[in-house]
Amino acid sequence: MKGIYKFMKSNNKITLSEKLFIGKGRVRKCYVHPDDQDLCIKVATDHKRAKRSIQREIRYFKRLKKRDTSFAMISQYFHPVQTDEGIGEVYELVRDYDGVISKDLRYYLNLGDKKLTGKILNIIEELRIYLLNEYILFSDLDVENILLQKVSPTEQRLVVIDGIGDNNQIPFLEYVPALGIKRSIRKWEMFRTQLIEEFSCTADQIKKFNE
User: Could you report the per-residue pLDDT of 166-199, keeping only the tens digit for each?
Assistant: First the structure.
């Protein structure tokens, strides 16, 4: 991520052209950073809750950094930038070892490869333990906002790129772990149910959050 500190200090407005476009969700659009292929810029959509949702997530990321949290399985947030579409937020862009932007869980589970699915289930367990041990709250785990990154030809990891944090306006769950874990159990169960309903091969192989 060369030159990241230059980006932080620069007041130049960044142009987000169509060729840099990666994708669009409910509250954000995502572009490759034109000056660094290992970064992406997320900007708000026209959704009425977009800006508030983004700012809430950013505040949470800043608090995670103050806690010295490991970002091993979530894409890291860096800083804001000025763009031709308004304020953008710079995040890590998750790429495979060969430089290709990593694909989401849905893509790989849809392949129906039993050996690969077995590996994915093991890595999902690693994600569960990571979120629990690091006490990272999540509001919306989904097969489309979790990427499978190929770290090498034989090694993979999961990286959550969206849905991190507490979507309550007052972030009290961070400071009351018993309540935060209770909420995480419920959210993980929703994710687990989605996997089982869409991919029957995962049934009974994904643990509950607090097991």
Answer: 777 667 888 888 898 998 999 999 999 999 898 8
Domain membership of residue 15 (yes or no) is yes
Q: What is the pLDDT of residues 112-147, one digit of tens each?
A: 998 999 999 999 999 999 999 999 999 888 999 999
Q: Which residues contact 42 (CB under 8 A, 6 or more apart)?
A: 28, 29, 30, 31, 54, 88, 89, 91
Scan for tokens 């990891």, then name that residue. 157
Domain that holds residue 20: 4-92
Q: Which of 43, 72, 92 marks a domain boundary?
A: 92
Residues 6+ positions from 26 with CB-CB distance below 8 Å? 45, 47, 50
Cα–Cα distance list, 115 to 75, 121, 122, 158, 171 (Å): 26, 10, 11, 17, 40
SS3 of residue 209 by DSSP: coil
How far is Cα 105 from Cα 156, in angstroms, rounded to an integer?
Answer: 12
Helices (runs of H) and strands (runs of E) counted in the chain = 5, 8
Out of 57, 92, 127, pick the residue that ends a domain. 92
* CA distance linking residue 89 with residue 114, whole number of Å: 38
- Distance, in Å, from the CA atom of 119 to the CA atom of 47, rounded to the nearest integer, reads 37
Length of the chain: 211
User: pTM score > 0.90 for this model?
Assistant: no
Sign of CA dihedral 115, 121, 124, 126: negative
The reply to whether 135 falls in a domain is: yes
